[in-house]
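Appendix B. Worked example

We walk through a single record from start to finish. Start with the input: the chain for Fumarate reductase, Cyberlindnera jadinii, length 472.
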Amino acid sequence: MSINHHFSKLTKEDPSEESTDMKPPVVVVGSGLAGLSSAYTLLLRNVPVVLLEKGEKFGGNSMKASSGINGMHTETQKLKGIEDSFEVFYNDTINSAKHVGDKDLQRVLVNDSTKAIDWLKTSIGVPLNVVNRLGGHSQTRTHRSEGVPPGFEIISKLLAKVKEQPGVELHNGAKLTGLDIVDNKVKGVKYLNVTSGEESTIKTSNVVIATGGFGYSKELLSKYTPHYVDFPTTNDKNTQGEGQVILENAGGELIDMEYVQIHPTGFIKKDDPQSNWKFLAAESLRGIGGILLNAKFDRFVNELDTRDAVSKAILAQEGKKAYLVLSDDMYKDFKFQIDFYKKMNLIEETTLSEKFGDDSAKVIELLREYSNGSEDQFGRKFKQHVFPDVSPDTTLYIGEVTPVVHFTMGGVKIDINGEVLNKDGVPIEGLYAAGEVSGGVHGKNRLGGNSLLECVVFGTRAGEQIAEKYKL
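Next comes the structure step. The output line below is what the pipeline stores for this chain.
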């Protein structure tokens, strides 16, 4: 894994010997959607890339995204007669964020969403021909393809595109350990081969850090949000926040680190209920019509409120958990994902009477009331599917859920092109960040579907800006 040797002709010790047409590769750290978006943008513009991934596999947490990616004014929306606007999407984003965050970044996120969806469809080959509505949204705008989990599809196809390009080197088992910054300019990247223990440096003048959040790090959670340290998490063990720490050590300013998103629905696995790691119960399950019941089989919240509000409501229930209840129509709409949950023993297919026994009559009345089509007592208006003709023999799909640490809104401060800002608000020349490692985009609470969008928008923007410098 000797990257320095391979690129030695591009990284000469003496700058005076360097040819004007021989520039060092851009180093992209992290192979989730943000990193791959940057890498592919650069490669298409004939900029050489070294992609470093700490884990054994490429794809990061993006690979597990299960609901989709937001976009407005898209072809899919138009075909389905859905009218959306910048103002409505932007207001949903900042309302979810509790009016905290960098408004310039939030405007760019929303404004570039049409371009992001089109890029995935036309350049990467992801159909994104289905749209759902998630919690906190005033319109239906969360895109996925039919019959396949969105994170897996997007990462698989984008990674294949990256691998096809000349001028790329991909290395897993390569852990970022430091950055060489001189006079506020990037000079190199330090990394560790986690298998051999060998430490190396890649000389470069441009780096994109896309290492994700810190939702698995007990150390950082204890430092910034100690009240969440004992919560279970949906994050992979590699989500340790090294990027944030290293960027701060390099002179970057960390912001919003105290804002950690608790997702309301992590599955409680029957055979391992105390596990600290939980499968995420996709927000789309509630978006397609799923409801939440407490231990007494009562509804207690608008299931499509923002994530923080639904989490707070579940935490107030007995056992800090709830039943997620789905109808057969909902199952058919999200069959590919629910079949996986059933296989993993996270959702059971049952009848109403088998599940609720003596309380069946109470639940039947509740489901009929929910299905009457009008706005209910909790303020829920959007119901893509309901529970038609409910009876004791009605088939239901039910899982137990509890709130989990899911996303960390804080990270390094960036400008609208992803360039990292130092503590004086000045860009560190050649240093970029995209995705969950950056802060300011989501404020106090991220809107569902905006994570994948953030990765594409700021990942491609960073790649485009670096590529422009390579033309000079």
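Two observations about the output. Confidence is low (pLDDT under 50) at residues 1-20. The chain has two domains: 3-62+153-259+409-471, 261-405.
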